[in-house]
Amino acid sequence: MILHGTGGSGQQFLRPQFAGVLFVPGGLLDPARYFIVLPDGIGHGKSSKPSDGMHAKFPAYTYNDMVHAQYQLLTRGLHINHLRLILGTSMGCMHSFVWGETYPAFTVALMLLACLPVQIAGRNRLWRKMIIDGIRNDPAWQGGDYTIEPHEALRSASDILFLASITPLIAQAQLPTRDVADADLDKHHADDFAHLDANDLLYQVSDSREYDPSANVATITAKIMWINTADGFINPPELGIAEKMAPRLRYGKFVLLPISEKTHGHGTHIWAAVWKKYLAELLQEK
């Protein structure tokens, strides 16, 4: 099972930089060899979400609820009682920590990409609260019962998410002049406004509010390969949290990928060629 990040869906894993590396004949996750599940988390993709009609009356779900729903999908819906691997990216990485603690015997291995097993705090909480407050304080939100999207709140949210997703090296290389940078931001806004819903986004960035697996990471019995990148905005290495937590893992290894022309900041988790050798190492373990 492969778990997506905040605002994403299982569809993202069909992109060439992921599927074209892993879902190929003879690849590490060759569909001819493995039954692969790409679920959309609650509030995301084609799963139930506020914009389906309940708006701000939609249940205030958390990561625990999302993991429980994934468990029900596997066991009751697909009649699966054991997994070879859970690969989680960003929010999906945090879900994987919850999986390892809540259902310790369900999966053999966890591939954890771009997260930390601690309460959402510091800058990681700040950008989320900025988006939440921006939506709730926009007069056009109308308590969630708007008929026209609160444009200014979505613009601010789009700006924050854009900065969180791009690294200085990539930005300088891809946006080398003022005019190119300005045009790219305008395009980013247009792309976001075409699909963002304020209520959906508000729920997506607030569902992490109860997340904190730090006390029980030592109870995880699955084998773990945990990877962050040195240019990650959301989990910057200078915090030193991963290095402190990794020794508490019973069967785990932490890898910090250095900044290079191949890394993409927090979004490196979708670029499988960068870290596939570590996935291969994990799958070789018995």
How many domains? The number is 2
How many runs of DSSP E, i.e. beta strands?
5
- Largest sheet properties: 5 strands, parallel
Overall radius of gyration: 19 Å
Mean pLDDT: 96
Estimated structural class: alpha/beta
Architecture (CATH level 2) name of the largest domain: 3-Layer(aba) Sandwich
CATH class of the largest domain: Alpha Beta
The span between the termini is: 18 Å
- In CATH terms, the superfamily of the largest domain is Alpha/Beta hydrolase fold, catalytic domain
- Strands of the widest sheet, in order across it, are 1-2-3-4-5
Helix content, binned percent? 25-40%
CATH topology value of the largest domain: Rossmann fold
Give the DSSP E fraction (strand runs of 2 or more residues).
Answer: 5-15%
Essential attributes:
alpha/beta; Rossmann fold; single chain; 5-stranded parallel β-sheet; Rna Polymerase Sigma Factor, Chain: A
Description:
There is one protein chain. α4 runs antiparallel to α5 (151-165) and α5 (151-165) crosses α7 (178-193). The protein has 286 residues and is of the alpha/beta class. The protein is globular. The protein starts with a strand and ends with a helix. It has two domains: 2-121 and 210-284, Rossmann fold (3-Layer(aba) Sandwich); 124-205, Orthogonal Bundle (Rna Polymerase Sigma Factor, Chain: A). It contains ten helices and five strands, in the order βααβαβαααααβαβα.
